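Pipeline run #58 for the internal structure catalog. This entry was flagged by the ingest filter as a single-chain record with no existing model, so it goes straight to prediction. Upstream metadata was stripped on purpose; only the residue string is passed forward. Reviewer on rotation: M.T. Logging verbosity set to normal.
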Amino acid sequence: MKVLIADDNTIVREGLAALLQGRGHEVVAAVGDGDAALAALAALGTATVDVVVMDIRMPPTHTDEGVRAAVRLKAARPDVGVLLFSQYAEVRWARTLLDVATVGVGYLLKDRVAEVATFIESLQQVAAGNVVLDPEVAAALVQAPRPLHDRLERLTARETDVLRLMAEGRSNTAIAETLFLSGGTVEKHVTAVFGKLGLEAAPSDHRRVLAVLRFLAA
């Protein structure tokens, strides 16, 4: 296999490269972030790259840069396999990748590198166009809350109207005037929407924006 590695941890990056090269595979590039991975792939041009090992949390924010880079990579080069690599089993990351590609993708936890044969086999499966999910990731997907479209279907007609107007940028006051409701009633509908969409209050999240994004995504 010809492999491109993207991981901001130098020890992990070089360790993976040594492991793969020691087993007869070619590491065509080893870089520290998603943008560098996309640039390396573009620089290789028509040169064959079978699979990219992409860490999920990389600079600059160390949140989901790898996932976003993987989505861009699959859009540009659907023939190249992408194996997301992370310490964490996160349903949202797995779904993001599977939403844009159902062939040649995978999500493996970094602990699996200790099982060298399993890791190499997973890479080969992704390079061959198959989907590979770490057992913990697969279990998390099965146990995850109901899909978004199911959650939206749980909204009442009035709650759907409120969410639609929220998506149009209306304030609660404007929604109340449009639907001939009191401000308190609109507030209750908004709270119900948050609850049915699984949006719990958190200091780092703006639930109104998240609700609108989910409505638009569906």
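catalog note: Residues 183-196 form the longest helix (14 residues).
catalog note: Residues 2-143 form a domain with the Rossmann fold fold (CATH 3.40.50.2300).
status: ready for reviewer M.T.
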